[in-house]
Write a structure and sequence with these properties.
Distance between the termini: 68 Å
Order of helices and strands: HHHHHHHHHHH
Number of domains: 2
Shape: elongated
Radius of gyration: 21 Å
Oligomer: single chain
Helix content: over 70%
Length: about 210
């Protein structure tokens, strides 16, 4: 095996980030990335296998970490006593916990904002194109668990169907990431998410407790 030239990997990742951000995954050129990194396309194939492997090298770690942060928060909420969970929309301490959690999420995204611009805006054509839908699935699973665990009759009464639950979860999670698409400043993004959550909380409260 030929020795790898020191610094080439870092240059490839740097140039790949620029190329993917500028042209998106489908429009990006491995040849251009390699040339701008001072090497050849063979270096890309040797290190990453193909273009998607290179894209994955840029986003995978952050994608998994953020998904784990969402899941961990929901898992932690599931451990609360059922009576506390029933007060979900009328609990000041929960509001404080949620704002702290959202602040951590926002901090993490803005600490890695170029990665999340790739993931949210430029991943069409890769396996990451359905990343947001993967988080929707987590949110939907926990929402259905909440309904079952608290004995809420929202489904049995016909006030909602599983399809509606999916639609609402999807609308919220897809809406959540709009601040990345719209290049909001961090403080603006935090205000936006709190407003979004307040809007959906009112709707969920009405649906669950009508």
């Amino acid at each position: 095996m030929a020795n790898r030239i020191e610094g080439v990997t870092e240059k490839l990742l740097e140039q790949a980030m620029k190329e993917f951000l500028e042209k998106g995954y489908t429009g990006a050129s491995l040849r251009t990335i390699a040339e701008n990194a001072g090497t050849t396309p063979r270096s890309v194939y040797t290190r990453y296998g193909d273009k998607e492997g290179l894209f994955s090298a840029l986003v995978f770690e952050c994608a998994e970490k953020l998904k784990a942060m969402f899941s961990s928060y929901m898992d932690e909420y599931d451990t609360k006593p059922v009576d506390e969970q029933k007060d979900l929309f009328h609990d000041d301490s929960f509001d404080t916990e949620y704002k702290d959690y959202i602040s951590l999420i926002i901090d993490y995204i803005y600490d890695n904002i170029d990665v999340f611009r790739l993931l949210i805006c430029e991943s069409e054509g890769t396996s990451f194109a359905r990343y947001i839908d993967e988080i929707v699935a987590v949110d939907e699973k926990h929402t259905l668990m909440y309904i079952e665990r608290t004995g809420n009759d929202v489904l049995n009464s016909g006030r909602a169907t599983p399809q509606l639950i999916h639609l609402l979860c999807s609308s919220y999670v897809h809406g959540f990431f709009e601040f990345v698409r719209h290049d909001m400043e961090k403080a603006e993004a935090l205000r936006y998410i709190i407003q979004l959550r307040t809007f959906f909380a009112c709707g969920w409260d009405h649906l669950f407790n009508i």
